[in-house]
What we know:
The protein is α+β, with helices and mostly antiparallel strands. It has one domain (51-214): minor pseudopilin epsh domain (minor pseudopilin epsh fold), CATH 3.55.40. 29% of the residues lie in helices and 23% in strands. The chain has helices at residues 6-17, 21-72; strands at residues 76-83, 95-104, 111-113, 118-119, 124-126, 163-169, 182-188, 199-204, 211-214. Strands 1, 2, 3, 4 and 6 form a five-stranded antiparallel β-sheet that branches. The chain has a four-stranded antiparallel β-sheet with strand order 5-7-8-9, covered by helices on one side.
Amino acid sequence: MNLRPPRLHARWVASSAAFTLIELLIVITICGLLLALAVPATNSILSAHQVTTGTQMVVDEISLARQVAITRNRMVEVRFYDFASADRGDAVAPEVSAFESVVFDETNVKATPLAAVQHLPGGVLISKEAALSSLLGPTRKKTNWTADDPKRDLPRGIGSSYEAYVLRFRPDGSTDLGAGSWFLTLHGSREGGSPPPNHAALQIDPHNGSLRLYRPG
């Protein structure tokens, strides 16, 4: 004889499989805590990746400029552009976030761009603080624009509303920098501190143009 009615058995299974309101609230709370812990870590990883990408872009540009100066026996100038642009998200003040190299003719008068202007990833900039980027000091600002080397309009709506800091390579690979410690520091545009925890510093040897990279940790 079957003593367990099928309907009673079905009700018991359904009742045992259901979640109570308290259990659901506990699960939601745990998920919220895990999400709150994961978001900062994810943002930090993304920022570090952007700084790494931007740093490699600058290293490649400076290395290319030096190599072209040597192989073409010409003066080559790397220009770091300081501007405010809507493309940079919520940036409201001018910041150094783009660069390009130009090569001069044999008279060192007429300048021709080597390639298109390079823009750093949206979350990265080159610090203008004197303690972090000595290469962007007032003595490195370009003011000698000429008809053969005009202050031309830059893309992305920047136009001529910018300043430029310069680094020149001579045909032997040396720079026009004087004695001293010359460097650039890249970091996330929303990070504070001097320097911020996540940054990369590039030191440039003024005599032979070689680079050294420093990262925290």
